[in-house]
Amino acid sequence: MKILVLNGPNLNMLGVREPDVYGKNTYADLCKMIKDHAKKKNVSITIKQTNCEGKLVTFIQKARNSFDAIVINPAAYTHTSVAILDAAKAVSLPMVEVHISDVTKREDFRQVSFIRSACQKTITGKGFQGYLEAIDYLLENK
Ligand code: DQA
């Protein structure tokens, strides 16, 4: 199974941005954790991060012919992007939405998720561990 892990804006700033919300570990730590887990589970993983909405759309479109599933943390675009939702619907790959923080306990504007309706599952508030759970879910439900 080939899984694409997509990360949206400001996730490259993990470790620096709001450590009380997102923790002190860095984006490099997150990538290492995901790669180590993938090795253990014998699954092929590609990880991408971009601050651009259109690039996320293109990554999703291109995944159609090269990946079996997507783990996505669209970050702030979760709450605003119809374009990312439409891309997800267009490729109809199994998809899991992940948020590091518990968005259900944060501001009202974070309660909206456009991508959610195209995802099999949402994992929120479990820190970096949420990405590993998302991978496990996709492996168990392929
Ligand atoms: C986030 C939550 C979003 O509301 C926020 O804009 C992010 C990160 C999370 O992982 O908790 O950038 O997706």
Fold topology:
Blueprint: E1 2-7, H1 19-22, H2 27-41, E2 44-49, H3 53-63, E3 69-73, H4 82-91, E4 95-99, E5 121-124, H5 129-140
Parallel strand pairs: 1-2, 1-3, 3-4, 4-5
Name given to the CATH homologous superfamily? Dehydroquinase, class II
* Secondary structure: number of strands: 5
Taking pLDDT < 50 over at least 5 consecutive residues as the criterion, the unreliable ranges are: none
- CATH C-level category: Alpha Beta
Order of strands, widest sheet: 2-1-3-4-5
Largest sheet: 5 strands, parallel
So what's the overall shape? globular
Instruction: Classify the beta-strand content into a percent band.
Output: 15-25%
The average pLDDT value, as a whole number, equals 98
Measured distance between first and last alpha carbons: 9 Å
**How much helix, percentage-wise, in residues?**
25-40%
Provide the domain count: 1
Question: The CATH topology, please?
Answer: Rossmann fold
User: What compounds are bound to the protein?
Assistant: 1,3,4-trihydroxy-5-OXO-cyclohexanecarboxylic acid
Radius of gyration: 14 Å
Describe it for me?
This protein is of the alpha/beta class and 142 residues long. The chain has one domain (2-140): Dehydroquinase, class II (Rossmann fold, 3-Layer(aba) Sandwich), CATH 3.40.50.9100. It is 37% helix and 18% strand. The protein has 5 helices and 5 strands; from the N terminus they run E-H-H-E-H-E-H-E-E-H. A 5-stranded parallel sheet has the order 2-1-3-4-5, sandwiched between helices. Helix 2 runs parallel beside helix 5 (129-140) and helix 3 packs parallel to helix 4. The longest helix has 15 residues, at 27-41. The mean pLDDT is 98. It binds 1,3,4-trihydroxy-5-OXO-cyclohexanecarboxylic acid. 1,3,4-trihydroxy-5-OXO-cyclohexanecarboxylic acid binds at residues 10, 73, 75-76, 78, 99-101, 103, 110.
